[in-house]
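User: Teach me something about this protein's shape.
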Amino acid sequence: AEERELTTAFFEQNFQLMQASAPADAPTSGAKLTLLERASLPDTPVSPNRTAITIAGLAAGLVLGLLAMTIWRRPRWSFRVTAWSAAGCVAALVVAFLIPDVFVSTAVLHVKPGVELDQISSQILSRENLIKLVQLPDLNLYPKQRSRQPLEEIVEEMRTKHIRIRPYEARGVASTRAIQVSFSYPHRFKA
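Assistant: First, the predicted structure itself:
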């Protein structure tokens, strides 16, 4: 239960910050958004695909071994072809495990009638909103990057690479009144 709460903290904090940062002249008829589905706790990473990377390394090693055998015209070099294949497989496996896992969590928000989806997306992805989220002690997002990069760069990367907002589709029918907000992050419980 604690893990699920940490997972949804990002979306709930964003939701609260967005409501609090609404313009003063905005209608006060209540919240513009309603949380329909809490953020999911990802079970497995969406990337990297270590199996595919390992198979690609095996194939590359096999090709290099066959190429070496063809260049040096020694057909009895089957042991060396096998060695190249194994080396390619091991190299790809090492590379696959050096690539960090990426987990994706998704929440669904209902948008009240009369509110434009572009306006909500702009508000969610606003510089001020994302800076507040990155700096929240409960979330502690991007700690390594914050020590090396300006906050502006981190927020821009977060906006362009890690957060996706799109209209929500329920059972194959597009809904113009709900949005799906996805956040990708290397830490399973913060995604």
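Now, about its shape. Confidence is low (pLDDT under 50) at residues 1-7. The CA atoms of residues 10 and 139 lie 7 Å apart. If you'd like, I can walk through any region in more detail.
User: That's plenty for now, thanks!
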